[in-house]
Amino acid sequence: MAIQKYFDTYYVPNNMVISLSGDFDPDEAIRIINEKFGSWMPKDFPSFKVAQEKLIKVPVVKEVVGPDAESLMMGFRFRGANSPDADLLTIVDYILSNGQAGLLDINLNTKQKVLSAGSSTDIMKDYSVHMFSGRPREGQSLEQVRDLILEQIMELKLGNFPDWMIPAVVNNLRLEQEKSYENNFNRASAMLNSALDGVPYKNVVNRMDRLSKINKEQVIQFVRDWYGENYVIVYKRNGVDENRVKVEKPAITPVEMNRELQSEFLKKIISNKVNPISPVFIDYSTSISTSKLKNSIPIYSVVNSENNLFSLNYTFEMGSSSDKRWPLIMQYVDYLGTATLSASKLQEEFYKLGCSFSATCGEDQITIQLEGISNNFIPAILLLEDLLAGPIADEEALKNLVNDILKKREC
């Protein structure tokens, strides 16, 4: 009865969102929607009310014990998706952790002060969360990892981050959005989440314009106002949980499979006639342009006519099967600098351009991928070519990388 009551209350057309994205006939889509849902009658339903949570004034500390590797999770709570917090929270998160040039990336990960550290956001209708994670290096305590993360938040409060960072963050967020919107599912999800979170769709469309207007003073004040002792932290420690409760494994009841039987619903689906899709085959000789460098290395290219992004792959016919050191070398690339740029400065330069590179190693092939905003194609290539032509080794970084890999293997 309770389930039926819940269904009757909330599953009504005026509490429904239908989000469509793709290559379809709009008129036909409307006809089908009207056929399937046109008879539904709207009904009043309870409006959504945000539960008023108590303010967190001192750190809430929890501990979990288990055999897995030690780690910590820490979170700050904010207002919901339709509040001013959402935009500032996004900017703060990317200044701290963006995978390339964030304060956690440069000051902790690249400098190998922790095994790993990062942050992410969960922006919801009622409340939002800024979550931080960290894993200790060998001989390092979780409390030390916590303090290192909090130190980076303090750097924001003091304004110790470069002036170019906010424009670069917005640039890279535009890049992420364009890449995301290449996918129909992501475009439909953006429209769906707008309605579910109670955010006017015009605010979704204008989001990048709003973010581009955020300045350094606003970020500093936001961090000073919202990031204090008001966090929850969970320490995952290595050990045996003395309070664990064992559950007896129940006997498995065999499920009799009636593969020959079909429900009326299945029969209806099978009987539906589907208009076949006419395939369009690619003619590689005309769709892909081919040229060669001076040393006869082939170049294959396709013009991106959908958005302002590029992707370039360098492919080498060698890998772990030819030399077991290659997988380690590909991980080491992130810690290499050039004659003029340290590893951290190199990552910063790529981030300013809205570009990034990655290196992967398979058994028979090594791939170095460069991608980003098309307008910065040439300077990004020059940066990467500078690294490939003259990488500067860091023996200490290599030693730490090896130790970190060994620690991860123990986990």
Would you write up a description of this structure?
This protein is α+β, with helices and mostly antiparallel strands and 411 residues long. The chain has two domains: 60-238, Cytochrome Bc1 Complex, Chain A, domain 1 (2-Layer Sandwich), CATH 3.30.830.10; 286-410, 2-Layer Sandwich (Cytochrome Bc1 Complex, Chain A, domain 1), CATH 3.30.830.10. It is built from 16 helices and ten strands. Strands 1-5-2-4-3 form a five-stranded mixed sheet. The longest helix has 16 residues, at 142-157.
How is the topology of this model organized?
Layout: H1 2-10, H2 26-37, E1 60-66, E2 71-79, H3 85-96, H4 103-110, E3 116-123, E4 127-135, H5 142-157, H6 165-180, H7 184-196, H8 201-205, H9 207-212, H10 216-226, E5 231-238, H11 264-271, H12 284-287, E6 289-292, E7 298-301, E8 309-316, H13 326-332, H14 343-353, E9 355-361, E10 366-373, H15 377-389, H16 395-410
Parallel strand pairs: 1-5
Antiparallel strand pairs: 2-4, 2-5, 3-4, 6-7, 8-10, 9-10
